[in-house]
Design goal:
five-stranded mixed barrel, about 30% helix, globular, seven-stranded mixed β-sheet, single chain
Length: about 400
């Protein structure tokens, strides 16, 4: 075999391995438990074949024209190469049913009302960055597909367009920090669920989420779950911590999904809105959602006693419309770390409202609040007017951004 042929075969094998690893990274999430996809269809291929669009002179793949008979819908769940779309009219029907009070059709979900749709190649190629649960889309039957669905496992519908988003929560992809991974879109509220006990409350994670939520354009709400497990001796420290966030204007609710504490207040705050529930694994996001609407019955799991970490009982984001509570919710998988997308180290202080208010009095406009003389932020820490805990969180996040750049 000639050297040129061996080199060609070696290059082809390397490219095949890279493609295989890329697909594995796409199919796997950054979860540490068994793979579970509540929306998967066993023994079904991810989608029907779709023709790849040709790139134009700029290298962009042009968007195909939307068929006249396409309908609007919301993405309720996503798997490799496909998604489930709830028709826009279904939301209106469920909401009117709840207002009539007849108790029928209390819940909309991907499993019961979603239409499985193939994704066009321009979305499927990098779908974690191009599509998210909550997206408003136009979808239509695939031309030539049998009306009775008698085509084996072939999908009958295709998404044609993703509409501009009102809000979008995202983070860097753990497998490639230079790429963005969408978490949820088109939400009014992002509820960061924390817990006391196990897993313990992590102020640094709360701050990271608050920064990401501010970037998303949505409003932030902090829900501290498992409050019934808090001992009287631990209450003052929690009061002090949560007071900092309340003073910054963030709504804070103390909840217990097990005891029903704070559920009415949470339901009243979110009524008539769309909300995404996010947070560390095991804090009880799904339990809070089940408490909001008993018909939901999302699978929940215990916290690992060995690692004091939550088991990932939600492994893919899912959208549900709780007609009985007049709330559309997105349940997201728990994550261990919340990366910050495209946040420069020199812009971090502006994401801490209390630090930003002090920074205007620093001697240097580009002060990092670490070593410069005349730093008003460090002076406030020394004087006790700025929490040393808040400053320590700022320093840890700053160090992580500087190390990543």
């Amino acid at each position: 075999m000639s050297k040129r042929r061996r080199a060609t075969r070696g290059r082809d094998a390397s490219q095949h391995l890279l493609r295989k690893r890329a697909q594995q990274a796409l199919d796997a999430d950054d979860l540490d438990d068994e793979s579970f996809d509540a929306w998967s269809q066993p023994d079904s291929p991810p989608s029907s074949p779709t023709a790849s669009a040709s790139a134009d002179a700029t290298g962009e793949t042009p968007e195909a024209p939307v068929p006249a008979h396409a309908r609007p819908g919301r993405v309720a769940a996503i798997a490799s190469g496909q998604c489930w779309v709830i028709d826009g009219d279904a939301f209106a029907s469920a909401s009117s049913t709840a207002q009539d009070g007849d108790g029928a059709n209390p819940l909309l979900s991907a499993t019961s009302h979603g239409t499985p749709c193939a994704l066009p190649s321009r979305l499927a190629a990098d779908q974690r960055a191009t599509l998210a649960v909550g997206d408003a889309v136009d979808y239509a039957p695939i031309e030539g597909a049998a009306a009775d669905g008698a085509t084996g496992h072939q999908l009958q519908h295709r998404v044609h367009r993703v509409h501009p988003r009102r809000t979008e929560l995202s983070r860097p992809d753990p497998h490639n920090p230079r790429q963005r991974r969408l978490i949820a879109t088109n939400v009014d509220w992002i509820v960061h669920v924390a817990s006391v006990g196990t897993p313990p409350l992590r102020p640094a994670l709360i701050d990271r989420y608050l920064i990401a939520i501010a970037q998303s354009g949505a409003q932030a709400l902090i829900a501290v779950n498992k409050i019934d497990l808090l001992s009287p001796d631990e209450t003052p420290a929690l009061d002090d911590l949560l007071a900092t966030y309340a003073e910054l204007g963030h709504p804070v609710l103390r909840c217990s999904a097990a005891r029903g504490i704070g559920i009415d207040a949470l339901r009243a705050r979110l009524r008539g809105t769309t909300a995404a529930f996010v947070g560390h694994s095991g804090v009880g996001k799904s339990s809070l959602l089940n408490a909001l609407s008993p018909q939901l019955d999302i699978r929940t799991g215990a916290v690992s006693e060995v690692y004091a970490r939550g088991r990932h009982t939600t492994t893919r984001a899912g959208l549900f419309h709780l007609a009985d509570a007049a709330i559309t919710v997105i349940d997201t998988p728990g994550i261990r770390e919340m990366g910050l997308w495209q946040l420069r180290p020199d812009a971090l202080a502006h994401s801490f409202d209390d630090l930003a208010a002090l920074a205007v009095d620093c001697r240097f406009p580009n002060c990092t609040h670490v070593h410069e003389p005349g730093c008003a932020v460090r002076a406030a820490v020394d004087a006790g007017t700025l929490s040393a805990r808040r400053y320590a969180i700022y320093r840890r996040i700053l160090d992580s951004l500087q190390n990543a750049s």
